[in-house]
Each structure stands twice: as structure tokens, then as C-alpha cells.
Amino acid sequence: MIELATAIQRFEHNLRAIRALAAGVDERQARWRPAPDEWSILEVIHHLYDEEREDFRPRLDLTLHHPDLPWPPNDPGAKVAERRYNEQDLREILTAFQSERAASLAWLSTLDAPDWKRSHTLAQVGTLRAGDLLVSWLAHDILHLRQLAELHYLYTTRQAQPYEVDYAGEW
């Protein structure tokens, strides 16, 4: 099992990487989607913000401290349209995400010998232990870091046309 201090450090590093991948992104690139059914950089960052405050931190807290209480509903896919993610301001959402991540780090730092084996059972996915949630939260960051890097790559290759990027190597 990953140590809590290591997880906290990883969350801090992930935040720096997310900020770096949002740096220098103009409004056009922030809203650009490779396809109509795929997310933009802005939508990814907004999703990270919502998941930080409405999914991972509160659900981990419930699992550790009130495992028998029901979890609040969460439909990340629906939020993209409902909350009009792609119409928001990237800098504002990035700042909001950074604030939520800081709140998460502060909260995680208060945990004293958490019982990572405490669990919560969901009809849709089965039993999740607190440790499962913590490492899933870290993995979620990494999945979206990969997505942000891919969005940069795809945007660059589209903007480069008619020139080719083959000389760069394989993606």
C-alpha cells in the first residue's frame, strides 16, 4: 500500500504537472476538441475540479469515517453539458481546481493512521476500500495528465498541417 505521505507528494506533483499542461493555452486551444464527442483541455480541467470536490475527497472521507452512509450521486459525463464546462474560463477553473487540491492536501494531512481497509459497497461497482479510493484518485490524475498531453499533441499536429510531425517519432 502506498504511504499517505507519498500519496500527498504525488498529488502535489500531479497538480504541478496539470498546471504546466494548462500554461500558455489560449482560449481557442482550451476549447478545442479533437472530435465532437471528445473533451477539450478546458473540459478535462473542469472535470478534475468537480471530481476533487464532489467525488474523491468526500467519498474517501465518508468511507473512512461514515462507511454506512450513502454516497451523494455523481454523474461526471452529464456534468460536462449541464455545467457547460467548455464555456467557462480556463484560468478561473484552474484556480478553482488548485484551491480544491490544496483543501484535499490539507485534509489528507490531518488523517491519523487511517484504516485503508474500511469499505463502502455500491450496487454498481461492488465494495471499495478506502485504499482503493486513494489510489484510484491518484490514477485518475494520471489518466487525465495523459489525456491533456494527448490533447496538446493532437492540437499541435492539426495546427501544423500541411506539415507532418512524423520526424518527431511515434506517439
Summarize the structure in words.
The structure is a single chain. This protein has helices at residues 4-22, 27-31, 41-65, 76-82, 90-110, 130-160; strands at 119-122, 126-129. The longest helix has 31 residues, at 130-160. Strands 1-2 form a two-stranded antiparallel sheet. It is built from 6 helices and 2 strands, in the order αααααββα. The chain has 171 residues and is mainly alpha-helical. Helix 1 runs antiparallel to helix 5 (90-110) and helix 1 (4-22) packs parallel to helix 6 (130-160). The two termini are 32 Å apart. The protein is elongated. The model has no long low-confidence stretch (mean pLDDT 95). A hairpin with a 3-residue loop joins strand 1 (119-122) and strand 2. The chain has a single domain (4-168), classed as dinb family like domain (Four Helix Bundle (Hemerythrin (Met), subunit A), Up-down Bundle), CATH 1.20.120.450.
Helix percent reads 55-70%
Largest sheet: 2 strands, antiparallel
Biggest sheet, spatial arrangement of strands: 1-2
CATH C-level: Mainly Alpha
Q: Compute the number of helices.
A: 6
Give the C-alpha Rg.
Answer: 18 Å
Low-pLDDT residue intervals, each spanning 5 or more residues = none
* Portion in beta strands: under 5%
Instruction: Label the CATH architecture.
Output: Up-down Bundle
The chain-level structural class is mainly alpha
Instruction: Give the H and E element order.
Output: HHHHHEEH
CATH superfamily: dinb family like domain
CATH topology descriptor: Four Helix Bundle (Hemerythrin (Met), subunit A)
Shape designation: elongated
Distance between the termini: 32 Å
Integer count of domains: 1
How many beta-strand elements? 2
Q: Round the mean pLDDT to the nearest integer and report it.
A: 95
